[in-house]
């Protein structure tokens, strides 16, 4: 039996946003590995083993998945959104370092629709010009790096998408991020809070930076800050195709 490993993105929440390629891999899998709420999105069936684990054990989870594939199992590591965006794909490649045996395995990354793209689509087209995307969690990098990146991105007039904006364990980070952005972009810049996009709880709120408060974001929110030309039209928000 020849095993394989697929690192798959489940999209932002709606089943219709799971790609056919990911559905096919899940249909052939013997094992599904991932963070508890993501594994819970996979329908159980006979012959499929589910391996849910806590969020903070990404490397262990990646090694366990590779070991199973090496034994001949067909393993899908699941992430929400896209697996390459602040998610499991990098953890799997990190686990491959120094392991020539695992590097010979059949490994594929299956893309998914990442939160910022689903959120941008729901809002209109706020990422329609150059943009960047920054993880605001300081679990895996010091705050100084986040602040430097925010300032440079603002000065380059990128629109920005922020992942992991605010959690109960680090409520102060987003307060600082908003203050930094107000300093760099002024109070009139548009900012969209997109919560639980593509699920029944979806909520979209667009305000100016001057009106934005930290409580508008939580861990189920992706935040999109416009560039200097981002504007409203009707009930939508968009960034024009050209920059001056
Ligand atoms: N790999 C995922 C991101 C994982 S980081 C992806 O590509 O989307 C987790 C963060 O993603 C959350 O804190 C939130 O900022 C964002 N996120 C994930 N799903 C979301 C959704 N349905 N709506 C809004 N934000 C979401």
Low-confidence stretches: none
**What is the percent of helical residues?**
25-40%
The share of residues in extended strands comes to 25-35%
User: Count the strands?
Assistant: 13
List the helices and strands and how they pair.
Elements: E1 4-9, H1 20-28, E2 31-35, H2 36-39, E3 49-53, H3 58-70, E4 74-79, H4 88-96, H5 100-103, E5 107-110, H6 115-123, E6 124-125, E7 131-135, H7 143-155, E8 159-163, H8 172-185, E9 190-195, E10 203-208, E11 221-225, E12 231-233, E13 236-238
Parallel strand pairs: 1-4, 1-5, 2-3, 2-4, 6-13, 7-8
Antiparallel strand pairs: 8-11, 9-10, 9-11, 12-13
Helix pairs in contact: 3-4, 7-8
Residues 12-13, 79-82, 85-87, 114-115, 119, 163-165, 194-198, 219-222 line the site of S-adenosyl-L-homocysteine.
Please give a structural write-up.
It is a single chain. This protein has 244 residues and is an alpha/beta fold. Helix 2 (36-39) links the parallel strand 2 and strand 3 (49-53). A five-stranded parallel β-sheet has the order 3-2-4-1-5, sandwiched between helices. A five-stranded mixed β-sheet has the order 7-8-11-9-10, sandwiched between helices. It has eight helices and 13 strands. Helix 3 (58-70) packs across helix 4. The mean pLDDT is 96. The termini are far apart. The protein is elongated and about 60 Å long. The site of S-adenosyl-L-homocysteine has 24 residues, from helix 6, strand 9 and strand 11.
């Amino acid at each position: 039996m020849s095993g394989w490993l697929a690192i798959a993105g489940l999209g932002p929440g709606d089943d219709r946003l799971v790609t056919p390629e990911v559905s096919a891999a899940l249909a052939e899998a013997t094992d599904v590995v991932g963070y508890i709420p993501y594994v819970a999105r996979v329908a159980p069936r006979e012959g499929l083993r589910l391996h849910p684990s806590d969020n903070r054990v990404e490397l262990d989870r990646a090694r366990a998945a590779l070991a199973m594939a090496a034994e001949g199992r067909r393993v899908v590591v699941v992430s929400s959104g896209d697996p390459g965006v602040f998610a499991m794909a990098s953890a799997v490649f990190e686990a491959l370092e120094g392991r020539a045996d695992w590097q010979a395995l059949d490994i594929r990354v299956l893309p998914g629709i990442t939160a910022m793209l689903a959120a941008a689509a729901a809002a209109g087209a706020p990422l329609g010009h150059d943009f960047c995307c920054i993880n605001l969690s300081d679990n895996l990098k010091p705050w100084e790096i986040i602040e430097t990146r925010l300032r440079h991105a603002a000065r380059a007039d990128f629109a920005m998408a922020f992942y992991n904006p605010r959690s109960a364990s680090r409520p102060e980070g987003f307060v600082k991020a908003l203050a930094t952005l107000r300093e760099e972009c002024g109070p009139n810049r548009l900012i969209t809070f997109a919560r639980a996009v593509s699920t029944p709880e979806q909520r979209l709120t667009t305000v100016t930076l001057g009106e934005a408060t930290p409580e508008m974001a939580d861990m189920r929110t992706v935040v999109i800050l416009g560039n200097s030309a981002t504007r409203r039209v009707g009930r939508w928000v968009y960034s024009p195709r050209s920059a001056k």
